[in-house]
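User: Is it possible to get a 3D structure for a protein together with its bound compound? The compound here is heme C. I've pasted both below.
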Amino acid sequence: MNSSFHLFPESASLAAGRYDTLMLSLTALLCVVALAVLVAIAGSVIRYHEHRPADRSHPPLANKPLEIAWTTIPLLVFLGIFAWAAHDYTLLAQETAGALPVTVVARQWMWKLEHANGKREINELHVPLGQAVQLTMTSQDVIHSFYVPAFRIKQDVVPGRYTTLRFTATHAGVYRLFCAEYCGTDHAAMQGRIVVMPPAEFARWLDADVGPETTAARGSALFRHYGCAACHDAGATVQAPRLDGLMGRTVTLQDGRTVTADAAYVRDAILTPHKDIVAGYAPIMPTYQGQIDEQDILAIIEYLRSMGAADASTSR
Ligand code: HEC
Ligand SMILES: [Cu+2]
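Assistant: Yes, that's possible. Here is the predicted structure of the complex:
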C-alpha cells in the first residue's frame, strides 16, 4: 500500500469490478443529467436576460407526449439501475458449491476466523487468489460489520444469526479489514488484514502448523462432549432424529410448518430447542443456551455438514 492519493480504494475482487462499473455508470448518468440542467439554466439566463428582446407573455402550454416521456424514461432508467444493483447485491450472499468456507465470529474487539481444516486466525484472513470464499459470520456480543474496502464488501455481523458474504480476490496483496459498525470503546481498533496469496502458496500456508483436527472433527468431538451423541447417534435409547444427511433437508415440524435445515436452523435447535419441534418427536432436548460458544456451534454445524448433505428430493 502506498500513500499516494487514490480517488477509489484499490480494486481487488470480482465484486469490486462490478460495483465500480455500477458506481461509475451512475456517476456518468448523474453528470449527464446535471449538465443538461446546467445548460438549460445557462440558456435561459442568456435568452431571457433583462435587456434582451424576448417573448415574455408566458402562454400556458401543454405537451402530453413530452410529459409522459420525461416521466417514464427516467422511471425506467432508475428501475433498471435498481435491478442492476440488486443483482450485484444478491451475488454476495449466494452460496456457491466450490467456495472455500470460512467461519467468522466477531466480538468486542476482534475477528476470529476458522478455515475448514481447523486452522484458526485472529484479525487476519488468508485467502487464495481467484477462488471464491464463503464467509459464514456471527457475533458473540454486539453488532459488528465486516468491511473490506478493496473488495467493496460490507456486511453486518449480528449476534443470534448467521450472515454470509462471498468474494473472489483478483489481486494478490494485503488489504485492510475494518469493523464498520460502532461497537464500543475499541471499535476503531477492531481492524485486521486480508492476505491474498497465489493458490499454491495459500495451500502451503493452509497446511502449515495446522492443528490436529479439522473443524468437522472438532465438531464431532464436541458432539460427544456435549452429550448430543447420547440421544442422536444410532443405538441411542432416546427417541431423537438421526442427524446425518440433515443439512439441506426439508424438515416437517410438529405444527405442520416445513423448514430447510440450514446453519441457522441447527443453531436454533441447539439454543432454543423448544421453538421448533420436529414432527413425531417429544420436546425433550435440553437447551444449550449459555453453555456453548459460537465457534463450537459452528464446528458442530460443520460436522453435521460433513455427514453428507441431503439430496433435495428427500423430505420427511
Ligand atoms: C436428551 C436428548 C437430546 C440431546 C442431549 C440432544 N438432543 Fe437434539 N434433539 C433431541 C430430540 C428428541 C429432538 C427432536 C425434537 C425437537 O425438535 O426438539 C432433537 C432435535 C435436534 C435437531 C433437529 C433435528 C431435525 O431432524 O430437524 C438438531 C439439529 C439437534 N437436535 C441437534 C443437537 C445437538 C447439536 C445436540 C448437542 C449440542 C443435541 N441435539 C442434544 C434430543 C436431544
Ligand atoms: Cu466491531
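The chain has two domains: 8-47+63-211, 215-306. Confidence is low (pLDDT under 50) at residues 310-316.
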